[in-house]
User: Which sequence fits this backbone?
């Protein structure tokens, strides 16, 4: 089976942050790479560890590359995996644990070893590091999302090197990133990065598993068509990463639709990539850049319910960026209160938007399909008919099932 992943891009790469129309200012991918002023770099477990624990030489090489970028004035946020892989050998375990409790214990041991070495290694470049541990659950809440955004921004202005990982010791099985690729894409949004760099043990995305003799490097992904027939199913052989290529392609898709290009390559190629050489796979940005609020709404917020809308509401509200009125809503499910995030679904079951609802799940059913004039009789003359205000929803492109 081949896969078509979620990267949807029809355009060349937008030049820099703030480019509204991706076609307005096309530049080559390598120029974008060098022009980026704020970069999120993610490195996977397989590139940081050996079966015995931390690979300190590999970490030092990465740190040297990132320090050189910082020296040029680029702000860098590192998303580093490796806590579990660095920890389990010290617990006398021969392989990566599968149960949650032992993973948590391994991560708790490994995370401190990881940070200890990053501190030493960046210290060679007189650079302060900061540990930022995030959970998916926290990023789903507006307040915590804003706090994380503020903390990362402040660290960057203080010239500190933030090193982000999932808070594996407390993350619950049900709600977690698991792999760090998605966390990296969300972090890129969180700190408004110009570029996401995913470093792995493989130098690029290939048409099939790299060990396959027919597999060819894919230098650039500019549209969904470039991913047709690409096989990403086989996991890495190191046995310590969790996501494999599937989560990297998905993460690049998240970044692309929120206006952030991604370069995927190996840790060994990191220096060459930053030097603008033609290495790895470049995923062009597609969608427009979003505010942190819109990114939160569209990507991470906890969804508490669903509103089903008719074709008229799709044309009148979603397509034209207007408020969603009760008259266009045909159904609702979930348990929500005013201010919660709901999905806005069309008659074909496609999620078209996410927004903040103004009524609770107990109030809304009685309002469905009713005109504003009709509802004013029940709710008073001040009632404006708005269920989701135009400023409070974000379109999902492409629509999701
Ligand atoms: N189409 C593909 N192109 C490149 N690598 C692939 C592909 N399909 C599967 N892989 C595997 O994905 C691995 C990278 O994923 P993973 O081990 O999770 O890395 P990391 O620990 O860096 O996140 C590669 O080592 C490779 O074996
Ligand atoms: N947060 C986890 C990351 C898990 C993991 O293996 O991620 P990755 O190597 O990026 O596929 C850790 O630090 O061990």
Assistant:
């Amino acid at each position: 089976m081949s896969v078509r992943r979620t990267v949807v891009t029809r355009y060349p790469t937008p030049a820099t942050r703030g480019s509204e129309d991706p076609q307005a200012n096309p530049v080559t991918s390598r120029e974008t790479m060098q022009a980026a002023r704020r970069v999120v770099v993610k490195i996977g477990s397989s590139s940081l560890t050996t079966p015995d624990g931390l690979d300190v030489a590999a970490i030092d090489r990465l740190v040297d590359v990132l320090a050189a970028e910082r020296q040029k004035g680029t702000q860098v946020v590192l998303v580093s995996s490796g806590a579990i892989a660095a920890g389990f050998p010290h617990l006398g375990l021969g392989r990566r644990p599968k149960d949650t409790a032992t993973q948590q214990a391994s991560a708790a041991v490994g995370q401190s070893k990881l940070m200890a070495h990053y501190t030493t290694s960046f210290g060679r470049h007189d650079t302060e590091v900061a540990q930022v541990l995030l959970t998916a659950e926290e990023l789903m809440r507006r307040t915590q999302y804003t706090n994380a955004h503020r903390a990362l921004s402040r660290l960057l202005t203080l010239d500190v090197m933030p090193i982000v990982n999932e808070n594996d010791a407390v993350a619950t099985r049900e709600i977690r990133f698991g792999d760090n690729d998605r966390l990296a894409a969300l972090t890129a949004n969180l700190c408004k990065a110009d570029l996401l760099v995913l470093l792995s043990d493989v130098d690029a995305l290939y048409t099939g598993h790299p060990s396959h003799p027919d597999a060819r490097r894919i230098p650039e992904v500019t549209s969904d068509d470039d991913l047709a027939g690409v096989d990403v199913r086989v996991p890495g052989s190191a046995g310590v990463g969790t996501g494999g290529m599937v989560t990297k392609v998905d993460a690049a898709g998240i970044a692309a639709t929120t206006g952030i290009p991604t370069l995927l390559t190996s840790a060994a190629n990191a220096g060459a990539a930053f030097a603008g050489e033609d290495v790895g796979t470049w995923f062009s940005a597609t969608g427009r850049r979003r505010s942190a609020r819109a990114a939160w709404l569209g990507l991470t917020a906890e969804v508490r319910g669903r509103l089903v809308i008719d074709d008229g509401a799709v044309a009148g509200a979603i397509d034209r960026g207007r408020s969603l009125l009760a008259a266009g809503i045909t159904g609702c499910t979930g348990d929500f209160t005013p201010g919660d995030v709901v999905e806005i679904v069309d008659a074909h079951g496609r999620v078209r938007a996410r927004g903040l609802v103004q009524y609770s799940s107990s109030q809304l059913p009685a309002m469905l399909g009713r005109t504003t004039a009709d509802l004013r009789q029940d709710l008073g003359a001040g009632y404006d008919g708005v269920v989701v205000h135009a400023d409070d929803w974000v379109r999902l492109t492409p629509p999701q099932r």
